[in-house]
Write a structure and sequence with these properties.
Structural class: mainly alpha
Number of domains: 1
Radius of gyration: 16 Å
Low-confidence stretches: none
Largest sheet: none
Number of helices: 3
Strand content: under 5%
Mean pLDDT: 83
Order of helices and strands: HHH
């Protein structure tokens, strides 16, 4: 595999991990008042969608060659996303 494709996969894995973290935070805020069964089902569905979309993205970039360091970079993206202070989804009041 070429180095440019590997670097692209590392960048995509990192950004995907960061994006997953932000969506999980948003998901937990939205479903605070939901029942435990619906939380479980929606969490399972969301996890399934994340896995399938990550596999599709990696397959599109490098024909499905997975390496351990892609997963490690995704985990690093999740950790850095949890440490970041920026809020991707925030309520904004209309400024008049």
């Amino acid at each position: 595999m070429k180095i440019t494709i590997q670097l692209l996969c590392l960048l995509v894995s990192f950004l995907f991990g960061f994006f997953i973290n932000k969506l999980i935070r948003f998901h937990s805020k939205v479903l605070k008042k939901a029942s435990s069964i619906s939380k479980l089902l929606i969490s399972f569905l969301l996890s399934y969608i994340f896995v399938i979309s990550y596999i599709d993205i990696i397959y599109f970039i490098n024909n499905g060659n997975f390496h351990l360091y892609f997963i490690i970079f995704m985990i690093v993206g999740i950790i850095i996303g949890s440490k970041s202070k920026t809020k991707l989804f925030r309520n904004r009041k209309n400024i008049k």
